[in-house]
Amino acid sequence: MDNHSRAGGPAGGGPAHAGAAAGTATPAPPPPPPPTRGAFVFNAADEERRRGVRRMKATATGLLLLVALVYVLAKYAQHAWGAGGWAGYVAAAAEAGMVGALADWFAVTALFKRPLGLPIPHTAIIPTKKDQLGVTLGEFVGENFLSADVVRARLHSLGIGGRLGAWLAEPAHADRVTAELATALRGALTVLRDSDVQAVVGEAITRRAESAEIAPGLGKTLQKVVVDGGHRRAVDLVCAKAHDWLITHGDSITDAVQGGAPGWTPRFVDRKVGERVYKELLRFVTEMRDMPEHPARAAVDRFLRDFAADLQSDTATRARVERLKSEILARDEVQDVIASAWSAIRSMIISAAEDEQSELRLRVRASLMSLGARLATDGRLQGKVEGWIEGAVVYVVTTYRKEITSLITDTVAAWDAEHTSRKIEAHIGRDLQFIRINGTVVGALAGLLIYTVSRAFGA
After folding, report:
1. Is 307 helix (H, G, I), strand (E, B) or coil?
2. DSSP state of 261
3. Can you tell me where the transmembrane regions are (predicted)?
4. pLDDT per residue over 420-430, tens digit each?
5. Distance separating alpha carbons of residues 97 and 108, to the nearest angstrom
6. Mean pLDDT for back-to-back runs of 10 residues, the chain (459 residues)
7. DSSP secondary structure, 70-85, as one string
8. How many angstroms separate the Cα of 391 from the Cα of each of 6, 34, 150, 198, 399?
């Protein structure tokens, strides 16, 4: 029987097996712990980098072992075989190479962990100083990349105005921007609730109409119309319509006059009076229609001029107009019309935005291309646009610089120390191993040089 069976596992007759035989459900294994907050995910590229780091570590360590072997052999040859002076030079170079290799190994290892697990001060710098590094990195980015002078100089060097103009002048690009604007407009209108917008529009229109006195404006407009003679067409139309109506309804007018006569008058007299009144009324209207200089027209002109003056200067007239305006605005029918205006406008805009050949989209496209052509050639306009863009970006950067840099600081603070160290080592560890190799080579050369100089001076 294997160890697992003897331990009372499912393969044996232990408690677990007995519980299963009795029909008792075996407790499900506990769920795996949630991933560490801020932990990195090592993908295939990271694993390949880590393999490269391991290969370079092996190379650097192999070089260290090689110079150590050379040192041992040189010393052995020098003492056991009585080798000449060359053995001293080789031993000195190998000894210095070992010192350089060990020193650089310690320096590289101290970045990511404690060498040999010893609690040496100022080692495992990345895991222990991770949060401080994040703060320092945030401050560095804020001071050197998010300062107003740096941002403004960088944006100015890009020549955004000219580039934007040349880009917009292309028909394909103008079509793309127009389509994106139409999509954004449709999305915004779809998200907005009609009831809320209707309430806002209705309140805005009503408040604006109530706060603005309309009588003086109406008076000035009417005065200009009368001076220009624009009202005469309306008078002509009224006279023509009145004449036609009298011709059509002559009997009705005569009967109305007869019906209003006293009962003691003879009927033929009433009829004569009715006919006379009708003829005089028809003659008056006909003359007024056909004679531009008719006294009644002059009376209308005087009335309109006086009314226009009263609208501008007469307190009582202006007050009556304002009361009439308030009464009209307070009517439910008027409020419904004002509120429903948004629905009509919304439907019209959405329909125009969806139709590629609509007047709205064609005009927007033409305006964009015209703006692009001007931006590409007009240096003054380029300067204005670039000034606006620079000002906007500088305002955002300077106002929200702390929020932007805190993104770096908070993100680094949320990283797991061990995973951070492994991730950074996977990206730069291969180059750091070259430091160990270079340290071995440079140390050997330096040791050889020092030994040579010492020998030259008889030391």
Report:
1. helix
2. S
3. 58-74, 86-112, 434-453
4. 788 788 888 88
5. 16
6. 40 40 46 47 78 90 93 87 81 92 90 83 80 84 84 87 90 92 86 72 73 83 84 84 84 72 67 79 86 85 87 87 82 74 80 88 92 90 90 89 85 78 82 89 92 81
7. HHHHHHHHHHHS---T
8. 78, 45, 13, 36, 12
In the chain, count of helices (H) and strands (E)?
21, 0
Rounded CA gap, 171 and 370, in Å? 10
Q: 0.85 cut: is pTM over it?
A: no
Question: Is-contact 161 372, C-beta < 8 A?
Answer: no
User: Residue 430 has which token pair?
Assistant: 């291969």
pLDDT for residue 262 = 65
d(CA 251, CA 18): 118
Q: Are 144 and 129 in contact (CB under 8 A)?
A: no
Say how far apart CA 408 and CA 387 lie, in whole Å. Answer: 29
In Å, how far are 2, 54, 157, 315, 355 from 68, measured between CA atoms? 49, 21, 56, 112, 81
Query: Which amino acid does the sequence have at 66?
Result: L
7: helix, strand or coil = coil
Taking Cα atoms as reference points, which of 305, 283, 304 lies closest to residue 294?
Answer: 283
Pair of tokens at residue 95: 């000894």
Q: Look up residue 177 and give its two tokens.
A: 């921007």
Tokens of residue 306, six digits: 């006086």
DSSP 12: T
Residue 90, both tokens: 């080789």
Using DSSP, state whether 115 is helix, strand or coil: helix
- Packed helices 44-80 and 417-456: angle between N→C axes, nearest 10 degrees: 30
